[in-house]
Design goal:
With about 150 residues, this protein is mainly α. Helices cover about 70% and strands about 0% of the residues. One of its GO terms (cellular component) is periplasmic space.
């Protein structure tokens, strides 16, 4: 019984094991650049993970391409430019300011201001209607009061 439990636990641990990448670097600077780049580039599939933490196929391909470009002598900026050209601005955590990104930042503020304006304008309309109703009601009450008072005089 114990033997079967150990076999089951061992088999389960094999399914949890992730493949480990072994990369050969030409120099320590290349390795440092590689580690920096894979931490800075975002996985297009996972969206919240960088390519260093992602096990997605596209992240594996991006890591391989990053290493390949560094071995070709490309700088970190050139590697990032290649990735942006290939996958879009999304792969960087600090995308450039474009009309689309400005719109993404400004639209929530505009929607909040529009909502506040809408609430205030509806409140003013409601108050104006209530004022008209209270004036009409007080006129009717005044007429009834005058009628009652005039009855007492007769």
């Amino acid at each position: 019984m114990k033997k079967q439990l150990y076999i089951l636990l061992f088999a389960n641990s094999l399914t949890l094991a992730a493949p480990v990448e072994f990369n050969q670097f030409d120099n320590p600077q290349q390795e440092a650049d590689y580690k920096t780049l894979i931490a800075e580039l975002r996985c297009p599939q996972c969206q919240n993970n960088n390519i260093a933490d992602s096990n997605a196929t596209i992240a594996t391909d991006m890591r391989a391409k990053t290493l390949e470009l560094l071995k070709q002598g490309k700088s970190k900026d050139e590697v990032v430019s290649y990735m942006i050209e290939r996958y879009g601005n999304f792969v960087t955590y600090n995308p450039p300011i474009t009309p689309a990104t400005i719109l993404l930042w400004v639209m929530p503020v505009l929607l909040i201001l529009f909502g506040i304006g809408l609430i205030l304008s509806r409140k003013k309309k409601t108050q104006a209607v209530e004022n008209r109703q209270s004036v009409a009601k007080s006129t009717i009450d005044q007429a009834r009061l005058d009628k009652i008072l005039n009855k007492d005089e007769k």
